[in-house]
Amino acid sequence: MAKLIWLIPILPLLGVAVNGTLGGKLGKRGVGAVACGTVLLAFLLSCGAVWELSHLPEDARHVAVSLGEWLPLGPLGADGALATVDWGFALDPLSAVMILVVTGVGFLIHVYATGYMAHEEGFARFFVYMNLFMSMMLTLVLGSNLLVTFVGWEGVGLCSYLLIGFFYDRPFDTRTGLTCADAGRKAFIVNRIGDFAFVIGMLYLLTTFGTLDYRGVLEGVNSGAGSHAMLVAVGLLLFIGACGKSAQIPLYVWLPDAMAGPTPVSALIHAATMVTAGVYMVTRMSGLYAHAPQAMAVVAVVGAATAIFAATMGITATDIKKVLAYSTVSQLGYMFAAAGVGAWTAAIFHLMTHAFFKALLFLGAGSVIHGQEGEQDITKMGGLKEKMPVTFVTFMIATLAIAGIVPLAGFFSKDEILWGAFSSGHRAVWAVLALSALLTAFYMFRLTFLVFYGDHRGDRHVWDHAHESPRSMTVPLMILAVLSVVGGWVGIPALLTGGRDINVFHHWLAPVVGAAHAVTQGEAHSASSEGLLMAAALAVALAGIGLAFAMYQMNRGSAERLAGTFRPVYVLWRNLYWVDELYEAVVLRPFYALSRWFAAFDRWVVDGLVNVSGILVDITGQLLKLFQTGYVRNYALLFLMGVVAILVYLARL
Amino acid sequence: MIDPRLVLVLSGVLFALGAVGVLLHRGAISILMCIELMLNAANLAFITFARLRGGAEAQIYVFFVMTLAAAEAAAGLAIVIALFRLRGTTDVDEINLLKW
After folding, report:
1. Is the confidence at residue A201, as pLDDT, over 50?
2. What are the residue ranges of helices labelled H in A424-526?
3. Is pLDDT at B24 greater than 50 in this prediction?
4. Is A632–B100 a contact, with Cβ atoms under 8 angstroms apart?
5. In this model, does residue A377 exceed pLDDT 90?
6. Which residues make Cβ contacts (< 8 Å) with residue A517, sequence separation at least 6?
7. Which whole number is the average pLDDT over A261-281?
8. Environment class of residue A518 by beta-carbon count within 10 Å: exposed (0-12), middle (13-18) or buried (19+)?
9. Which terminus of chain B has fewer CB atoms gathered within 10 Å of its CB, N or C?
């Protein structure tokens, strides 16, 4: 079955073909069944393949399948060997985790979407895009070389663009006056910047090692074929690519606007799967980063900075989905910080648990929006706990999980990241991450209190009609809630089990990132400090919750007073540090000015030359036409005079 | 034998008459007839020189010119008929479609 992994990306593609051609005839039930069915098949196939993989000996857990040669590139690399790029797919412990998360969470979100999108136009179109996304995401994670991964990378970018702009004619952001289509375009263009660096990084690798195959590249790195400077350069270039896709500073600006898409899209693409592609790719290249400590330092700093920067913006946002979007940016920063300090396993662990609870949060938010006739402003919500019991309970579980409360999923992964940062000597990174953990707990509970507790602050009519969502939406919520609880139990640190080693996740990923671990850090475990840190992380989370409780439950109105007291900070956060405006002033305006200059040059100089030659011909013609009388006998006379003149001339000679 | 200069003068006079006819007549058929006159004036000159020089080439040219004249008359008359059907006249001054 593991040899059939190439089928996994193909299956959702079949759904695209069927729904894309027959979508109009199948009806909503048919379209939903095809879309969910193909993803379910992909999930089952993934389970089978991973099951088989887990029964191989640990060092043989790598199944590669090539569907044939794609690009024969000729002699490249240090030894001038013939380089080729295959349509190669590979299953190893890392891609196994990814395909299970992508197909599993993806299937649940597909089912949810059949309920959420039931009343929307373009039902079939939506599921065609969703299935195409699944196919591309699976290509991304299963590709055995960078170029196949890049195909998926661009494919998910395309689907992201299409789905953000799904309601292409609706206005989206009143502050900036964007439509949904504009938001999609913004995401696409910002991603292109990262992708450009990604491509350059790939070309560097290709010319140095003569291959783009992950294993080949890592072998080349380990054999010392590339210079140190080149490894750092490639590490940074690939990280810029990851910054675009995974919304890190300075390319994060597209993700909050990506919330213009339907909520299931936000859950699947802009929280659980696509935006984690950067983390996946960086972890995939961990062997290279291990030899480029400078690049890793950049990854760690950018990740930690993003984590806290986005968290502060999440505090003041009032759109339920925007809060979650900033939270996603922040959590992605967490993952990059983990990767940057060498805690690769922790990064992927957090990627997985985050996929569970963040998908759940988004789907819960979607359920809230769905039950309230599209209202997204949390200042107009409140008290929904009674109206939507299932949504409330599952949302609460996810909130506790992301805040890092033991024993939910987020606690273990977050704790592992914090411990990884601390134990590898990156105390500053640790401190920043701990502070953002506090902020995370605070803004998530602010959100929960504002939405589910207190009195309804919105329209009376909306409150009367608020209702729990249909089964197709609540069942995925419940399943994800279970995963958000138990998802972290595969990675319980030995400390909590009295020294017994049941950290399955760690051992599972060891064949992929073990080598990088060995290069970057020696094992310097100290049980007492690990326990202390764990307690500190928990205390920080509880402090955040307590703060939110004090401000939004016990003493309502204190938030406004606080905002008044710290007015400059509040204004700064409320306006998102004016980063969009900064980009507008620094990048867009000069760019537009330059474009206008080029346009003028084209219009007046390039086109001008052509036009002037045309005008000259025209003027000459206008003059010459005056000699035309239209009388044949006139022409004959002139003709005769000409002949006579020639004869006279000849006779004179 | 007649003085060849007299014949050449006659040829020139005929040519001039033809040319003036082309310039002065407005009817397409008259113009065609005048052109015919000019061609025959040329033929007369050819024959005169052939007689003077005693070669055969000039006589061959005359046959070419006669063939050409026949073809020209056929094509020219066909065009005139087509024009007449189209415009209802053979007055060349009326036929000025290509004028700006």
Report:
1. yes
2. 427-452, 460-465, 471-486, 504-520
3. yes
4. no
5. no
6. A342, A344, A345, A510
7. 92
8. exposed
9. N
Q: How far apart are CA A54 and CA B84, in angstroms?
A: 97
CA pair distance B14, A560, nearest whole angstrom: 116
Mean pLDDT of A236-262: 91
Angle separating helix axes A427-452 and A320-340, nearest 10 degrees: 160
Average pLDDT value for residue range A354-365: 94
Count of alpha carbons within 13 Å of A505, Cβ hemisphere only? 25
Tokens representing A595? 């474009």
Q: What is the DSSP letter of A374?
A: T
Phi, psi of A405 (to 5 degrees): -95, 130
Q: Which residue in A369, A380, A343 sits closest to A467, CA to CA? A: A369
Question: B42 vs A304, A380, B16, B64, B70, CA distance in Å?
Answer: 105, 107, 11, 12, 15
Residues in Cβ contact with A414 at an 8 Å cutoff, skipping those fewer than 6 apart: A334, A350, A404, A437, A537
Q: Give per-residue pLDDT as tens, A566-591.
A: 888 888 888 888 888 888 889 889 99
Q: Is the ipTM of this complex over 0.85?
A: no
Share of chain A above pLDDT 70, in %: 97
**A638 vs B contacts (CB less than 8 Å):** none
Q: Is the CB of residue B2 less than 8 Å away from at least one CB of chain A?
A: no
Q: Nearest by CB to B96, which of A625, A630, A640?
A: A630
Given an 8 Å threshold on Cβ–Cβ distance, is A630 in contact with B98? yes
Q: Which of residues 434-473 of A touch B (CB under 8 A)?
A: none
Residue A552 tokens, joined: 């939004």
Residues in chain B: 100
Q: Is the pLDDT of residue A523 over 60?
A: no
Q: Which two three-digit tokens encode residue A286?
A: 């961990």
Using DSSP, state whether A74 is helix, strand or coil: strand
> Which ranges of A143-276 would DSSP assign to H, the alpha helix?
146-164, 180-209, 214-222, 228-245, 254-257, 263-267
Dist. CA A247–CA A186, nearest whole Å: 12
What is the pLDDT confidence band of residue A164, given thresholds at 50, 70 and 90? very high
Q: Contacts of residue A632 in chain B, CB cutoff 8 Å? A: 31, 92-93, 95
- Cα separations (Å) of A58 from A61, A62, A510, A514? 6, 9, 9, 12
Strand A63-75, strand A82-91: pairing: antiparallel
Q: Which amino acid belongs to residue A275?
A: V
Count of A–B CB contacts within 8 Å? 26
Tell me how far apart the alpha carbons of residues A533 and A412 are, in angstroms, rounded to a whole number: 12
Mean pLDDT of A112-139: 92
Angle between helix axes A344-371 and A504-520 (nearest 10 degrees) is: 130
- pLDDT tier, A387 (very low <50, low <70, confident <90, very high otherwise): confident
E strands, A334-390, are none
A27: left (phi over 0), alpha (psi -120 to 50) or beta: left
CA A57 to chain CA centroid, nearest Å:
34
Instruction: List the Cα angle A445/A450/A452 in 5-degree steps.
Output: 90
Of the pLDDT bands very low, low, confident and very high (cuts 50, 70, 90), residue B53 is confident
**Mean pLDDT along residues B43-68:** 90
Report residue A503 CA to chain centroid gap: 28
Q: Do B19 and A640 touch (CB under 8 A)?
A: yes
Determine the pLDDT at residue A78: 63
Torsion of CA A331, A335, A336, A342, to 10 degrees: 150
Spatial contact of A8 and A82, defined as CB atoms under 8 Å apart:
no
Structural domains of chain B, ranges and CATH numbers in brackets:
4-87 (1.10.287.3510)
Q: What is the mean pLDDT of chain A?
A: 89
How far the first Cα of chain A sits from its last, in Å, is 102
